[in-house]
Design a protein that fits this description.
By secondary structure, this protein is α/β, with parallel strands linked by helices. About 45% of the residues lie in helices and about 10% in strands. Strands 3-2-1-4-5 form a five-stranded parallel sheet, covered by helices on one side.
Length: about 240
């Protein structure tokens, strides 16, 4: 079966920098084996899962009220649970698989979340997650001019608590009882800088979203053609 054009679909709903990274991430999930029941840790508004998967996810878990209410309107999940992932209201060994897309880096007590996931996952169940590595901050273009104060400011506005190398994540996983099977880096330095500048070029979209609840006003191909052409080379 031909894979859907994930970049085009994301660009219709999101600012270009978020569409770029979400399309790349969604591409990998097309080949992941996720037996049911499946848990989405930090499901947010459900937009990512609505485009990354062709089936409904069994459970979406998120601590924030407004996003999870929006996720309910998308019909992506069999069940939505508003709760802290470090105190998940599920019995031992309930889930056969789980994933967490660009969430773990935002959680200060991430070790507690890993421990809780190890409890509620069945023995040997796969857990997939993606997080930024140190290049997320070390490759910032404006830091070359403004130095560490800008780097720290950018980290704060993007709410990233952990931009760590794989060795650190492996240590956290193993302490919780997981075994790291495989990891890879999926964003080039140039794509990271496109992501950085998208925070500024995306300000009009942010204003539109505040006023209308939508990130993109005109979803027609003619309006998005140039953006898609530019983004396509970074999304490969």
């Amino acid at each position: 079966m031909q894979e859907p054009d994930l970049l085009s679909r994301h660009l219709q709903d999101l600012p270009y920098f978020r569409a770029l990274i979400r399309a790349v991430e969604a591409h990998y999930y097309q080949s992941f084996d996720m037996p049911q029941p499946t848990l989405d840790v930090g499901c947010g508004d459900g937009h990512f899962s609505s485009l990354a998967f062709t089936r409904r996810i069994d459970v979406g878990l998120d601590p924030w009220h407004v996003p999870i209410q929006e996720a309910g309107k998308r019909g992506v999940y069999q069940l939505l649970v508003e709760a802290d992932a470090a105190h998940a209201p599920f019995p031992h060994g309930y889930f056969a698989s789980a994933f967490s897309n660009s969430v773990m880096e935002h959680i200060p007590n991430v070790d507690a979340v890993f421990s809780e996931l190890a409890r509620i996952l069945q023995p040997g169940a796969p857990f997939y997650f993606c997080v930024p590595n140190p290049r997320y901050l070390s490759e910032l273009s404006i830091s070359r001019l403004l130095g560490k104060p800008y780097t720290e400011w950018f980290r704060r506005i993007s709410r990233v608590c952990h931009a760590d190398p794989p060795e650190i994540w492996q240590e956290r996983l193993e302490q919780a009882g997981f075994a790291l099977e495989r990891f890879w880096h999926y964003f080039s330095p140039s794509a990271l800088r496109v992501l950085e500048w998208g925070h500024y070029f995306g300000l009009p979209s942010w204003l539109i979203h505040r006023l209308t609840g939508r990130w993109i006003l005109v979803k027609s191909s003619w309006n998005l053609r140039l953006t898609e052409k530019i983004m396509r080379r970074y999304a490969s």
